[in-house]
Amino acid sequence: MQVVQALQQALPNTSVLTSEEACRPYECDALSAYREKPLAVVLPENIDQVKRVLQICKAHQTPVITRGSGTGLAGGALPLKEGIVLGLSKLNKILKIDPLQRIAVVEPGVRNIQVTQAVEPFGLYYAPDPSSQIACSIGGNVAENSGGVHCLKYGLTVHNVTSIRVLNMAGEEYVFDEKDDGIDLLALLNGSEGLLGVIVEIKLKLLPKPEAAQLVMAAFSCVKACAEAVTAVLQEGIIPAGLEMMDRFSIQAAEDFAKVGYPTDAQALLLCEVDGSHDQVQVDAQRVAEILTGQGAYQIRVSQNERERTALWQGRKNAFPAVGRYSPDYYCMDGTIPRSQLAYVLEEIAKLSQKYDLRVANVFHAGDGNLHPLILYDANQPGQLQRTEAFGCDILNLCVDVGGTITGEHGVGVEKLNSMCHQYQGDELEIFHGIKAVFDDTGLLNPGKAVPTLHRCAELGQMHVHKGQLPFAHLERF
Amino acid sequence: MEQTVKLLAEQIQQARHENQTLQIVGGNSKVPLNDTAQVLSIQEHSGILSYEPAELVITARAGTRLQELQQVLAEKKQMLAFEPPEYGNSTIGGTYACALTGPARPFRGKLRDYVLGTKLLDGQGRALSFGGKMIKNVAGYDVSRMLAGSKGSMALVTELSLKVVPLVEEVTYRIEMPECEAIVLMNQLAGTSLPLSGAAYYGGYFYYRVMGAHPKQTNRVGVEAVDNQVWQTLNPFRPKLPPGQKLWRLDVESTTPCIDGTIAVGMCGSRRWVASEHKPEHPYVTLWDERFLPRHNDGLGVQKIKQGLKKVFDPYHVFQDL
Ligand SMILES: Cc1cc2nc3c(=O)[nH]c(=O)nc-3n(C[C@H](O)[C@H](O)[C@H](O)COP(=O)(O)OP(=O)(O)OC[C@H]3O[C@@H](n4cnc5c(N)ncnc54)[C@H](O)[C@@H]3O)c2cc1C
Known about the structure:
The complex is a heterodimer.
Chain A: H1 2-10, E1 16-17, H2 20-23, E2 40-42, H3 47-59, E3 64-67, E4 84-87, E5 94-98, E6 103-106, H4 112-119, E7 124-125, H5 138-144, H6 151-154, E8 161-167, E9 173-177, H7 185-189, E10 198-205, E11 207-208, E12 212-220, H8 223-235, E13 242-247, H9 248-258, E14 268-276, H10 278-294, E15 299-302, H11 306-317, H12 319-324, E16 329-332, E17 335-336, H13 342-356, E18 360-365, E19 370-377, H14 384-401, H15 417-423, H16 426-439, H17 454-460
Parallel strand pairs in A: 2-4, 3-4
Antiparallel strand pairs in A: 1-2, 5-6, 6-10, 7-11, 8-9, 8-10, 12-14, 12-15, 13-14, 13-18, 16-19, 17-19, 18-19
Chain B: H1 3-17, E1 22-25, E2 38-41, E3 48-52, E4 57-61, H2 66-75, E5 78-79, H3 92-98, H4 105-108, E6 115-121, E7 127-131, H5 143-146, E8 156-163, E9 165-166, E10 170-176, H6 179-190, E11 196-202, E12 205-211, E13 224-226, H7 229-234, E14 246-251, E15 262-266, E16 271-276, E17 285-287, H8 300-313
Parallel strand pairs in B: 1-2
Antiparallel strand pairs in B: 3-4, 4-8, 5-9, 6-7, 6-8, 10-12, 10-13, 11-12, 11-15, 14-16, 14-17, 15-16
Bound molecules: flavin-adenine dinucleotide.
Residues 29-30, 65-73, 76-77, 88, 108, 130-132, 136-137, 139-141, 143-144, 146-148, 193-194, 198-199, 320, 409-410, 446 of chain A line the site of flavin-adenine dinucleotide.
């Protein structure tokens, strides 16, 4: 292949992988049911090399799939047979830390946790903390607009990035900065899933580490009461740093795995963390405990020290692998719903679980309405993967129908293309394609991801475009 | 489609056929009117559509008065975290279009950080909907955040969903000190666990505002508690200047040392208000007139992208450029 030769000539030997074996780890991201071997994997060591790669690929009309750490859960970094994978893991330097200004400038391959580790001596940290933070890259975080347990209070990636450097397919460089005037291109690039440009440098906002944090754990014998308790806390004017809910299956799995003292007889468990100054945390933790008791929690535990607090989190943080132990494979969904719909949605999911004859565990970023149902299946059993995907799709449609969205933080990738047809109509999709074309008129940057073609949606029958007229265009969708 | 939206859409389509340019106007409090454009007013399209305090979300039509919105929120002990400046008669649509944020920005974030969804009419009069009412939503490009700051040049925003936060008690303190020392001190304080929601320098004093329960401040030498008025003085900032002097808004790195001609430092050091006859040499400078004008300092590449995006939303150039 000419393009591979050109890349080999332009980059050091070790930076272009072509053999089946060397490429294997790059064949998929964390949505491993989808795999593809690319023409080559290139691992440039600096921005100039990234530019060269883009120019060469542009000249050869070769698609480029940018990849950070490959922890994405939606197939965003899935290779194309006729494309190359642009892996940014070697661009892994923290370029600048300014403790007084409370910012860090990093290359895209820097792992999320590295930032917090590097700035810890200054009493600072980087707030967005996806569960994958030991592995996932900051570039990937920006491309997905990733969230974490603390995003109700401290925001998503988009709220914590103040400037980025981006390359287009011609290798031309752009800076999008929070100081820019007019429309907010920095916001647009967050969550653009590698379709609008390659992010090569990121300036991050750092926050002072909270002086104190306390975790309140509350057990409920009924899901509805637990959901209402979440509402009660927020209504009282407390914004917890973390507010997580688990259903019975998740509680039992997590306890079995981490042995942290979760009440396994509970139908729902709430973990509510408050942080801030010593004074405020004392007031808030007490208040939260009172509210939750008032809402019918039958058991309350308030962490008395750091050790206890971290221990209580361990169960929740390991919920995915814990549930995963019960089954060869699991499939993680990422819908978002209005909190008021939680009890209803969980009931419906339970019905679907029976219909598809697949078990499901639910963990929920309750504070911001982000639901992660984990569907258990066995890919080696014929038909199970298809059934799982159909089940997942039904869950996402359910989320949209109650006024929510198909993805809160994992992105659309290839996984949720069909669900996008359910969430958006033809005109909006057309605008999305228009935006893509402005940034990438070659269409070579991560093609086929994130935004379905109108044709695909029409085929699915979700949408019948007739002379540009949509049926029921007057119906509210949110 | 709602009747008022339908009427607005018809006006857009008509303008397109007659090759008219439209200037979208909310409360007419910020952007100067342009003689060559026809006014498209969103004042009639007002009212709060849904507000559930426990969901921390409010949805309102674009013509809703900012004051009305804030009052409704205050009744439920909530507020807009980005503290938009009140120029008198402002609408929430106009506020969004200008994307102005108050003194808490370095601590609580800016307007677009609180935008969850928008409904809009594009330059073809098509009704579109982006985002929603969810705090987390990464389906599709984030058009509703992108259009914050578009100043009516891309689309007519008809409806907005915003994240709201609990109303907090805030106390302001001040210390008399030189500006250069204040700039360092405000950055230092912002790196501690003191829950700040404002830090500024004005009239010889360093002012800082603290939220909620916090350690006693006035036992430190030179610190006095004052009322919260100074934040209104700075937001919007409309000083009386001697004839010939102009007001310039500079957006800088927060630790930038003193800049000549500065009459106020806002946003924990990242904003400088400079009074001078001539434009200060600086990458992010805006002339801050009585009225609100754009800056136009994008590089060629970014200009091209913005022009391209304008075409996506407004292919026939119905909405006035700014
Ligand atoms: C166990 C586990 C837990 C997780 N928990 C969370 C969680 O709590 N919250 C959450 O939000 N996500 C979570 N995720 C998902 C995933 O970790 C995030 O989406 C993460 O941001 C992906 O980063 P990455 O570096 O691995 O990106 P990749 O998977 O390599 O890429 C993701 C997408 O971004 C694009 N991309 C990557 N880098 C760049 C760049 N520099 N420029 C342009 N485009 C780029 C890719 O093309 C792709 O579309 C989890 C995943 C796992 C496996």
